[in-house]
Amino acid sequence: MPRFLCTTCGTQYPDTPAPPAACATCADPRQYVNPQGQAWTTPEALARTHRNGFAEIEPGLLGIGTMPGFAIGQRALLVSTPAGNLLWDCISLLDAATRRIVAALGGVAAIAISHPHYYAAMTSWARAFAAPVLLHAADRAHVMDPDPAIRFWEGETLSPLPGLTLIRLGGHFAGGTVLHWAAGAGGAGALLSGDIVQVGPDRMVSFMRSYPNLIPLDAGTVRAMAAKLEPRPFEPVYGAWWERVIPVGGKRAVAESVARYVAAVSGPPAEPITPP
């Protein structure tokens, strides 16, 4: 039986003879149902029209993204460590070429995902590489394709491999997680943020409960998220898309962005602009 993929969010569902009536991930207020109606594809059909591209982001960090863009369009990141590779976030397409390339690079020792919008085809990736999927337990209810490979973790931090730390920030989702890579940027540290900490076009960051529906977070939540990041050194911030990167000065940019965000949601409204 086929494993259906939602074309709007990319979430994969278990084997069924027919697609689900609706995608529960899209029905959540943080996402949206396509105004043209719910639509589905399968991994086999997706592989006929799309392929994955690879790019070295920095030594030890490889981006993997589907072309042309599919669903939300995020790219995954493969982090190499002496103890093995970790796949950060996930994508929906896992074709034969991707399997061979990733296997040649040493495979995947573990998969960790920032939040449910990027669960994608996580169980297919887990089965292909015999890797556990590490998800924060606070987001357990959002798993649409249960599998024995999924390991739910609790608390505020988890080290899946030496030098890598998962940090639960919350915010966008209760279990919203970022990854700190101590060896990134030549040892200065790097933050892999998904869109829990969203990198903007101005190389600052922002925070939302729902990005497509423009539902913000409150100031207290954002301050708490920032406090959890404060002890960690990092220079680059790698967001969820190829172009969403702060290459240097990331920690300073996050601090300045938090102040900007808190002022915007807490202070008086800006004065209106009077036309000349």
Structural commentary:
The chain is an alpha+beta fold and 276 residues long. 20% of the residues lie in helices and 28% in strands. The chain has 6 helices and 20 strands. The strands form 5 sheets. A 7-stranded mixed sheet has the order 4-5-6-7-8-9-10. A hairpin with a 5-residue loop joins strand 19 and strand 20. Helix 5 packs antiparallel against helix 6. It starts with a strand and ends in a 10-residue tail after the last helix. The mean pLDDT is 96.
Quick overview of this protein structure:
The chain is an alpha+beta fold and 276 residues long.
What characteristics describe this protein?
six-stranded mixed sheet; alpha+beta; 276 residues; globular; seven-stranded mixed sheet; 20 strands
Outline the fold blueprint:
Blueprint: E1 3-6, E2 12-15, H1 24-27, E3 40-41, H2 43-49, E4 51-58, E5 61-67, E6 76-81, E7 84-88, H3 96-104, E8 110-112, H4 122-129, E9 133-136, E10 150-153, E11 157-158, E12 164-168, E13 177-181, E14 190-194, E15 198-199, E16 205-206, E17 208-210, E18 215-216, H5 219-229, E19 237-239, E20 245-246, H6 250-266
Structural class determined from secondary elements: alpha+beta
Strand content: 25-35%
Task: Give, in order, the helices and strands.
Answer: EEHEHEEEEHEHEEEEEEEEEEHEEH
Low-pLDDT parts are none
The proportion of residues forming helix, as a percent range, comes to: 10-25%
DSSP summary: helix tally: 6
The radius of gyration over CA amounts to: 19 Å
CA-CA gap between termini = 65 Å
Beta-strand segment tally: 20
Any idea what the shape is?
Answer: globular
Instruction: Report strand order across the widest sheet.
Output: 4-5-6-7-8-9-10
Kindly report the average pLDDT value. Answer: 96
Largest sheet: 7 strands, mixed
